[in-house]
Amino acid sequence: MLYIIRGHSAFLNVTVWSSSIITNSYWMRQIKKIPNSGKYAIENYDLTIHHVDQHDDGEYTFYVVNVYGTQSIKITLKTGRKPVLTTNQTLLYAKKRSLTVLDVTVSSTSLITGSYWVGQNRIYNSRRYTIDNYDLTVRNVKASDDGEYTFYAKNDYGTQSIKITLKTGRKPVLTTNQTLLYIRRGLAAVLDVTVSSTSLITGSYWVGQNRIYNSRRYTIDNYDLTVRNVKASDDGEYTFYAKNDYGTQSIKITLRTGSTYVMI
């Protein structure tokens, strides 16, 4: 059996030994004699097929004749291609202690064998790892799981690989001492939020359905919101949203205005 990648040339090699002069030799495919022209080249009994495709699959027979008779030998040609690998997860963010799946799609013209590696270490099925249908599941993700994972797929025509980088972390952690904030009207109110995050975050403040932007009355700095010259219309529930690569968290502060203020 001869496996050849489609688009390449196939070389069907035959060695002939004879005690007398060879009077004839030729190649056949099914009942058709193969010419020494076009995509076929015959030289010194060997057959070259240029730019093979799936239509070239099949059994090729070489016949050789001398004064004592005819002998033949068969070679089966099978064309195909290396596996084709795709993923939407070249960079995958996973929350710590979560279950995450490294997803790879494989297209192959023949049976493949696959393996996952992280660095120089091959990954096998275990309590924490499961390889199923070319996907790798990692359970209870830890910081030590960070790294570049490589999936190798091999078939009769060669080997291909694809890489996925796994980065672990957690959603932002938000805290405040101001779940309820009383401010005297006319003063400035500072809504204070402390943020802890394993990666870069983006943050925004909202009151009801309205997002708050920096302006003459509002300043957002280092996750804190300053409201100047507070009015009765500023009463309400303010929500701060923090988003990083691992998800979004929010925290609420209720602002009440009046003639005196108390911080709780």
From TrEMBL:
Domain of life according to the entry: Eukaryota
Annotated InterPro entries: Cell_Adh-Cytoskel_Orgn (IPR050958), Ig-like_dom_sf (IPR036179), Ig-like_fold (IPR013783), Ig_I-set (IPR013098), Ig_sub (IPR003599)
Pfam families, alphabetized: I-set
Organism: Mytilus coruscus (Sea mussel)
Single biological process term from Gene Ontology: homophilic cell adhesion via plasma membrane adhesion molecules
A GO molecular-function descriptor: protein serine/threonine kinase activity
Protein name per UniProt: TTN
Gene3D superfamilies: Immunoglobulins
Gene Ontology CC entries for this record: plasma membrane
The keyword Electron transport belongs to this UniProt entry's keyword annotation: no
Keywords linked to the UniProt accession: Disulfide bond, Signal, Transferase
Enzyme Commission code: 2.7.11.1
Location of the Immunoglobulin domain: 2-78, 89-167, 178-256
PANTHER family xref list: CONTACTIN 5 (PTHR45080), IG-LIKE DOMAIN-CONTAINING PROTEIN (PTHR45080:SF8)
Transmembrane domains' residue ranges: none
